[in-house]
Every structure is written in structure tokens, then in C-alpha cells.
Amino acid sequence: MARPRAKDLGISIGTLPPGELNAITDVPGVRVGHETIVSGESVRTGVTVVLPHEGNAWEEPVFAGPHRLNGNGELTGLEWIRESGLLTSPIGLTNTHSVGVVRDSLIAAEVEGRGDDFWSLPVVGETWDGVLNDISGMHVRAEHVRAALASARGGRVAEGNVGGGTGMICHGFKGGIGTSSRVVEAVGDHVVGVLVQANYGRRERLRVDGVPVGTAIPASEVPLPGEAGAPPGGSIIALVATSAPLLPDQCRRLAQRAGLGIARMGGVGENSSGDLFLCFSTGNRGLPTGDFAAETPLTVPVELVPAQRLTPLFDAVVEATEEAILNALCAAETMTGRGGRTAHAVPVERLCDLMAQRGVPGR
Questions:
Q1: I need a labelling partner for 27 at 20 to 30 A (CA). Which of 223, 225, 260, 321 fits?
Q2: Which of 163, 192, 196, 194 is nearest to 180 (CA)?
Q3: Among this protein's residues, is 275 annotated catalytic?
Q4: Helix (H) / strand (E) containing 174
Q5: HEC sequence for 281-346
Q6: What b-and-e string marks burial along 101-117, b requiring 16 or more CB atoms within 10 Å of the CB?
Q7: What single DSSP character describes residue 199?
Q8: Which residue in 26, 275, 281, 315 is the catalytic one?
Q9: Average pLDDT in the 219-234 region?
Q10: What's the rounded Cα separation, in Å, for the pair 342 and 222?
Q11: For residue 232, is pLDDT > 70?
Q12: Does residue 269 have a pLDDT over 90?
């Protein structure tokens, strides 16, 4: 039986209402696909893909902007996004040593349909799943990327031990994929959705809606994974999508706010952490692509939310990021992997008890 999400436990983060699905797919057109790879005693990994709209992202880019909280990680293609302000590919998420095969496979899948004159700098992010997974065994292959692409759909998004989040650990508990959304009534009912691959943080710093959960559930109660005394590490990728019409620098400003949601959960951007964020806006469609001036109009009309109206969107990013991480923790199930190491799930009944002590009802 699926584990509960945060709202199923009576935990409401922030004040803005969630979308219908409380997921990044509440942004119209956004699709998510997973391929989960679990084999034997030591393979615990996978691939997640996010498609920014229902069309072909290679042919119809959208405005985007990135942000780096701490740079011990990888999110490919960011230099071109910074330069052009455009997201021109699907987004892949996987483990650290499989970034190359996912990137190459995204290109290969598109080349098949349009020929070898196609070029792209696709966006692929990573976090390190080497505690539970044989990360250097290169178990992610092209067929897994194809399967994730083929499975990409709107609707509900699987969370926890799925796709790129299969082997991930968060604040000393089992982590993985999580998502959440907010409807911003103050900005025309536009939606902000966040999806995270959560693999960061120390147990003692974990907070849920301000409650110091990590110190209340020490390693003596729920053991930490990995070797005793191993330094904390890990990373988090946060993808922010919005239907609000934004320009690239405004997307960058929204992406930056994901770091505040992570901070509310207890993340500080450790030296060993790769905390990389990307925001894209679907509010301006039909943007030209390619380098052929003769085929490009002289001007293109775009819309934008004025800077004075952005703060409610910032609020939405912070709230949705915090809840997406919490959903990753709540959805993830205990997993044993490489070398018999075990990452334990957050004990939801214990979590409910701790929240109830602060006036938050449980189930």
C-alpha cells in the first residue's frame, strides 16, 4: 500500500492552496516519466524525465533560468540556458555517474526522428546514490531513458523510491522524488509546481513546518545508512515549473527561492552538496528556435508578470519546495542495497505524534 503524502498526515505547509494534484503536473502540459532499476542486492537507481509541455521541447523552447546554491553537482546545459534564456530539451534526472548516458540518450532519441543534423545541449541533473547503489556499475542504459520518455504523462506523479530517486537518501532517511504545487490567486490563478530529487541533509537539522523532527528521531531510534562516522553529503535538484508568463531573469529569481524551501527543511548547502535549481515558464509559447534568420520573425510578442507582482510566486516556490521534499520523505519506503546498507523510511506515526505536539493534527 502506498505511503501517505504530507497532506494525508494532516500536515499543511504554508498558506497558499495546492493544485488539484499537488504536483508539478498541475502546470498545464508538464509531464513526468520514471524508469526504476532495482536488481539483485546492489542495483538501486533509475531515471526521471520532465517534459515542459505537451509539444516537442526541442522544437518549441520555453523561457528558463537556473540558480546554484552549492555547486558540488551537475546540471548539464545550464550555460546555454544562462546565455539564451531558453530551455530547449526535456530534463533528465539520474545518478551522478549516469549523467552522460542519459544526456546522450536524450539526443539519440531525437536524432532518430529528425536526422543527424540535429544538435542540442540537453539538461540532465544528478545526485549521488552510491550508498545504496552500485553507482560505478553503469546500470542506467539507453533503453531505460527511452522507457522513462515513453512513460512521461500528466496526472499523478509517483514519489519516493522511483526513477532517479530510487537510491537516494534525505536527512538520514530514505529520500527520492517528491513534488508539490501551489495556485497563486494573486497572480491570475497561475500555478507553480516543484519536483525534487532529494538526496541531501543531516538528520539533526531536519525540520518539518518548523518542528525539529530530526533531533526528536535520532540515530539511536532510526539508524542512519552507511558506515558509522561517514561524513554527511548528498545533493538536491529542484525543478520549478510555472504557468505564469515570465522572462528568463524572472525564472532565475523563482529558481533562487527553491533554496529557501530547502533551508526551511534544514538544508544549508553543505560543501559536499550539489544544490542546483532550474525554473521554466510555460506562459510564453511559440518562441522561435534555430539559427536561421530568414525563418525568424523580426519581433515576437511576449507577456510577463511585472516585478511588483512576483512576490506571491516566490511564496509559492518556497512552500512547494518544502512540501515536495516532505512528500519525498513520506512516500519513500525503507530500502536495503549495496553492502547490506539500509536507509530507513521516516516513521510516519512518530512524525504525526511530533507534529501533534505542536498543534498539527495527525491522520
A1: 260
A2: 194
A3: yes
A4: strand 173-174
A5: ECCCCCCCCCCCHHHCCCCCCCCCCCHHHCHHHHHHHHHHHHHHHHHHHHHCCCEECHHHCEECCC
A6: bbbebbbebbeeeeeee
A7: E
A8: 275
A9: 75
A10: 11
A11: no
A12: yes
Kindly give, in sequence order, each residue whose CB lies less than 8 Å from that of residue 288, ignoring residues fewer than 6 positions away.
295, 296, 297, 300
For strands 176-184 and 173-174, give the pairing.
Answer: unpaired
- Cell numbers linked to 27: 502546470
pLDDT digits 0-9 by tens, 294-308: 678 889 999 999 999
pLDDT at position 292 is: 64
Fold designation for 7-289+304-356: L-amino peptidase D-ALA esterase/amidase (3.60.70)
- What is the amino acid identity at position 239? L
Q: Is the pLDDT at 363 greater than 50, yes or no? A: no
Q: What is the reported pLDDT for 359?
A: 78
220 is catalytic: no
Average pLDDT, the chain: 94
Report the alpha-carbon distance of residue 124 to residue 237 in Å, rounded: 10
From residue 99, how far is each of 92, 122, 168, 201, 357 by CA, in Å?
A: 8, 11, 15, 22, 43
Which is the catalytic residue, given 89, 98, 181, 273?
A: 273
Q: What is the pLDDT of residue 295?
A: 75
According to DSSP, the residues that pair with 173 across neighbouring strands are 170
Q: Choosing from 89, 98, 235, 243, which is the catalytic residue?
A: 235
Q: What is the DSSP string of 8-62?
A: GGT---SSSPP-SSSSGGGSTT-EEEEEEEEETTTEEEEEEEEESSSS-TTTS-E
User: All 3 cell numbers of residue 87?
Assistant: 530551455
Among 214, 216, 234, which residue's Cα sits nearest to residue 326?
A: 214
**Cα–Cα distance for residue pair 19/30, rounded to 1 Å:** 13
Q: Cα–Cα distances in Å, from 78 out to 68, 75, 289?
A: 10, 7, 17
